Amino acid sequence: MIEHLELFFKSIFVDNMVFAVFLGMCSYLAVSKKVATAVGLGAAVIFVLAITVPLNWLLDQYLLQPGALAWIDGSSNGEGFSGMDLGFLSFIMFIATIATMVQLVEIVVEKFSPSLYNSLGIFLPLIAVNCAILGGSLFMQSREIESFGLAVNYGVSSGIGWFLAILAIAAIREKIRYSNVPAPLRGLGITFIITGLMGIGFLSFGGMLTGGEEEEATPEPTAQVETIQTEDAKELAENTKIAE
């Protein structure tokens, strides 16, 4: 349970897709002019990440990793399928899964919310090439997420982190329209500055999960004194024998 909570909060605040690794910045900047549009796209990103990261975890565990095909022939001694390494297919398989899920999201949004579909425009199908979506699956693979449950957790929490980022900047950009921003900074200029300040704020959460780390065990002073006394006694005994 602690492992799930740690991964959840770390993915949202410490390893935020936007503020920590700057993934998904294109749609983050383009679709964050209105809160309603940002909420719709953020929800779509959460859904896609929540589905694609666990699916790609299954593909990685049972198809792509070295020896992952041992379940086909029931052996693990490097013979038959168990000796195959399909890791070079990771990008192709991950992108295929993401494209399928994005197509499903596009169909659902167009069916049940035509206004949101029209407001998102080209950026809804472009979720398929959103680097935050592919980054979630690649980070899952590189960080060696251990279980399917943790993969689901990581996908959902990464999506929530991206959702909070675009929701926050959209709310700020709606308010900043009525502010006296210097002319050279209007538009993307002030947006980049605010994003940088928000990134610094989110990076301050980096110390949240480091307080419980175990310190390296150091020998107790009493044990060191006993060791020194034992060594001194041995040297004294040897010197006595030599003198005799």
Rg to the nearest angstrom?
A: 27 Å
Give the % helix. 55-70%
Q: What's the number of domains?
A: 1
Major β-sheet profile: none
Counted beta strands: 0
Beta-sheet strand percentage?
under 5%
* Shape, per Cα inertia axes: flat
Low-pLDDT stretches are: 212-217
State the separation between the terminal residues, measured CA to CA: 68 Å
Order of helices and strands: HHHHHHHHHH
Q: Structural class, judged by helices and strands?
A: mainly alpha
Q: What value does the average pLDDT take?
A: 81
Number of H/I helices:
10
Protein architecture, described:
The protein has 244 residues and is mainly alpha-helical. The chain has one domain (2-218). Helices cover 67% and strands 0% of the residues. The longest helix has 30 residues, at 35-64. 30% of the residues are buried. The model is unreliable at 212-217 (pLDDT under 50).
Short description:
The chain has ten helices and no strands. With 244 residues, the chain is mainly alpha-helical. It has one domain (2-218).
Break the fold down into its secondary structure elements and pairings:
Layout: H1 2-14, H2 25-30, H3 35-64, H4 70-73, H5 90-112, H6 114-120, H7 131-142, H8 148-176, H9 188-203, H10 221-243
Key descriptive features of the protein:
flat, 10 helices, mainly alpha, 244 residues
